[in-house]
């Protein structure tokens, strides 16, 4: 710890003002803002990453980040803020949080995590911005939709046609087997009738 005081000369007299009787630098940290912030947006999400500079190794794993993003044409006063749960210098924004065809701007700042007792800091200044825009979802053409529809319909139609042909084949085979049996009684009746007629003549 340190003792911090101010000395001044007022009306010909020297005065000493005690500012901090016990000052601990680790409790009053202000980091440099993150730099080299970049982004990559797709149709499903936007990934944003950055790097930190001049941060001691023992602080790198206990940093806390806050992301701020907005529509590019809007003011930062209406921006959305996200305090990130991880100390990793990256974040992903779901596409559902972004409007299609709109450009967005994002920036980030950092400080030591509030869950850390050994160190304490205030937020750094905001980083430079990165600009991104959600990629549009590719539209499926009507031709592809029609092709897929025909493919789905082809299978049941083919199956139904096959069943219909098999059914007709079975019916035709049954008819061919049954036709001699149906003709035979008629021939037998005509033959017996001729016999009766001939017998009657003879008598």
From TrEMBL:
Residues 33-135 form the Fibronectin type-III domain. It is a single-pass type I membrane protein. Its main location: membrane. This is IL9R protein. GO terms for cellular component: external side of plasma membrane. One of its GO terms (biological process) is immunoglobulin mediated immune response. It comes from the Eukaryota. GO terms for molecular function: cytokine receptor activity. The lineage of its organism: Eukaryota, Metazoa, Chordata, Craniata, Vertebrata.
């Amino acid at each position: 710890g340190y003792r911090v005081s101010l000395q001044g000369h007022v009306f010909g007299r020297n005065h000493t003002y005690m500012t901090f009787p016990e000052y601990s630098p680790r409790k009053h940290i202000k980091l440099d803002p993150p730099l080299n912030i970049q982004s990559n947006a797709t149709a499903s999400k936007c990934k944003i990453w950055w790097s930190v500079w001049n941060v001691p190794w023992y602080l790198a794993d206990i940093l806390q980040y806050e992301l701020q993003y907005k529509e590019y044409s809007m003011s930062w006063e209406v921006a959305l803020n996200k305090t990130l749960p991880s100390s990793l210098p990256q974040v992903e924004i779901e596409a559902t949080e972004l409007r299609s065809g709109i450009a967005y701007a994002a920036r980030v700042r950092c400080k030591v995590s509030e869950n850390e007792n050994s160190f304490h800091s205030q937020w750094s200044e905001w980083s430079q911005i990165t600009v991104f825009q959600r990629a549009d979802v590719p539209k499926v053409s009507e031709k592809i939709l029609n092709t897929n529809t025909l493919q789905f319909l082809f299978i049941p139609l083919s199956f139904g046609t096959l069943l219909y042909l098999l059914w007709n084949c079975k019916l035709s085979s049954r008819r061919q087997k049954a036709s001699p049996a149906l003709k035979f009684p008629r021939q037998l009746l005509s033959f017996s009738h001729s016999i009766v007629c001939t017998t009657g003549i003879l008598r």
